[in-house]
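yo

u said u wanted the structure for the complex thing, so here. seqs first:
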Amino acid sequence: MANDHVSWRIKKGEVHALLGENGAGKSTITSILFGLLQADSGEILVDGKSVLIHNPNDANALGIGMVHQHFKLVPSYTVTENIILGLEPKTAWGHINYQRARSKIQEISHQFGLAVDPDARIANINVGMQQRVEILKTLYRDARIIVLDEPTAVLTPQEIDDLMQIILRLKAQGRTIIFISHKLKEIKTCADQVTVLRRGKIVGSADVSDCTEAQLAEMMVGHAVEFVTQKDAPTIGNVVLRLENISVKSMRGSIAVKDLSLSVHAGEVLGIAGVDGNGQSELALALSGVVKPVKGKIYLDEVDVTSFGVRKRVEMGLGLTPEDRETQAVISNFNLAENYVLKTFYRNPYSSVLGFLNKKKISDDAQVQLENFDVRSANGWRSSISELSGGNRQKVVVAREMTIASKLLVVCQPTRGLDVGSIEYIHRQIIAQRNAGKAVLLISFELDEILNLCDRIATISHGSIVGIIDAKDATRQQVGQMMTASHKETVVG
Amino acid sequence: MNMKKVNSSKLVQFVDFSIKNEFIMSVYVILLGFFLSTVLLYLVGLKPSVMYNTIVQTITGYDFSKYRFNARYIGTWLTNSMPLILTGLSFNIALRSGFFNIGAEGQFIIGLTFAQYFAFLLPPVMGVTGIVAVIIGALFAAGWGAIVGWLRGRYQTSEVVLTIMFNYIAFYFSRWFSQKYLPGANSYRADNFPQEALLANSWFQSITNGSLLNNGLFLVIVSLIVYHIIMEKTKWGFSLRASGFSPLAAKFAGIAPVRSAVVAMAGAGFFAGLAGGIVYLGSFTFANVIRAQDQYGFTGIAVGLVSGGSAIGTLLSGLFFGLLNAAAPLMQSRGIPREIATMISAFVVIFIALSTGIKLRLGQWVIKAKNKEKEMD
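structre next:
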């Protein structure tokens, strides 16, 4: 049972945050509100009246609109077509009246400052804009209560700021917002009231202005949380990774990484800060060996590994957690042990010379490491990875890559979509790797994560490094400015 | 009240257990196929008991209407099942690697074409020539499959389109090649095979009262074992399964996608090619110039879909479809059109296709029912 006798009140015209870790039952509650699931017992009241919500149409009729975490848009349709889908205004002849739809969309967009182009195709607009289309969709259907499910998970820092502004404007115009998140800073910024959910039960409701972030975190996790990872001064060693003027093409064929040079030393965490889409993904692909750079050289321990594939780089001691855990890092039909050896199953001691898998050794090693990394699962290594929460899945990936990374560990968005407890744990592990004398390269869109973990911070913009600074002297503002600045003269720190 | 609750929870447990077990689902689907066929026979005024009698007779060799035993029926059943088990393996090894192999038909044809050719070419050694010829034919079919795998892996061409087209190429290639290179060939047959090249096994024939059961049976058993070992026990099977479940994650883990595609499709070609050789060196005494596609490859898709992907599943599923094939002529002789047998297999395939949806629905029902029970406690 995901929710256990939850009672919850939301006032008209407020921004009400629903806070909870992954798996706490936030999504279940909202699915019930939107008619995707039915409550086994209890009732829902809107404006004091008991209502039955059997499906999303009932929810729409009651003025409840939902923006899902994963957008429900048709990529090949225009903004207008997506918004009117299922509710098309007709002309006298029975055709779709695009003109009327268009002007209504423009009017709403203007009213709430959404700046949405009604004729743009979804495939051609960025994620932040797509989200605004989703919000517009609910407004077009006259939603009075708008549910935003983890709206910032996919956004860049700038887009998050924009969204906060939009939420405040919606509130100013009398709409009620339910804001689901596990990010404390955002809740502090925009919410009036917060309800904390843990293991399907409400632990408390409070005025946001009355609580600190630390108090909210403690309510959510159930124990005190450290936001700053403890670390000593780094012991810097030799250069482990050296990138020499590498250029990498994106999937679309344009140059995404341009003449990028960078060195990472043993015993340090070098962070790459930047707004999403500035070549981070392509840089990670080139480091992993999945994509070959079109120009330049990659040296690992002064060995030219530019032409090496994934497997040869693994053998050289390169561990890498890819940015998209679900599609790039794990195989959901495999169990934990199989996922643990996904990169090393083919070699001694996991496979014999004749190619037979040593299943005993695989499961024994996996079990030890799963315990070391505090992976919580129902059946140990036998559990299917799809049964695990996001945080535990990421721990499996991190366990695997840290075991492989004898020299260099590259972590891309290591805590994306994870709850506070898992983030804290993974951060400690990353510092432990650095303390063990490995070189660590951290690619992240979360500025706080970069500032917390790194010894040096490099900022990336338009596929090139625009500056490197020592993390000791770095401030949020400074790094933020570097991120958004266009090409400056490279500062080497 | 209390009684009722116990009953309902037993039903819930039963459904819960059933939908989580591939094998049991397959059995249900087959039973459902027979049930529909029974209804159909009633509706058209025929006796379903005749159908069941025929089925039982094909499995046991015992004719309950005449109280006579004839082992030949069992032999015919096994002979019919052999190529279907192999084309089922062909489909399964590709499917578990993430590819939909429609090409077993063409791979079957390449296998039989070269098996026939080498049956004449190889030095005649009793009991060996035939088997070696079949294996060489299968190797050619593996190469044939590998071409598709390479095109799929390297250029992302749809393997479904490729294999369908390759089936046509294989068919016309086989007719041209056989007429040109087989001794004494005309437009439909060539010379008799040398005795040594036949797969016939006189001991099998004697215990099954002169059926066509032959040495191909050994190849089928070895194939099942090899398939099981490769897929479940070796690093190659691990690579293939990883690519099959998630090509992208496999690529990120250093499993070369092109190689996986080539290996999977070559394996598929090998099994289907073996089937071709076994049918043509096992059931004929003369070389054929094929005039039509035999449908073993296409039935193999059904065998694979029903099997759930394991070696044991493929064996049982192949035996089931082989049973329908073997029983069809017998049914016909007793007044039930052979189309009925084909319809049973069609019903089974349709229900297998529906089973994902049915499982989903039943799964939701189980969760709801369990929640309700919890609340009553």
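Confidence is low (pLDDT under 50) at residues 1-6 of chain B. Chain B has two domains: 1-46+336-377, 74-326.
cya
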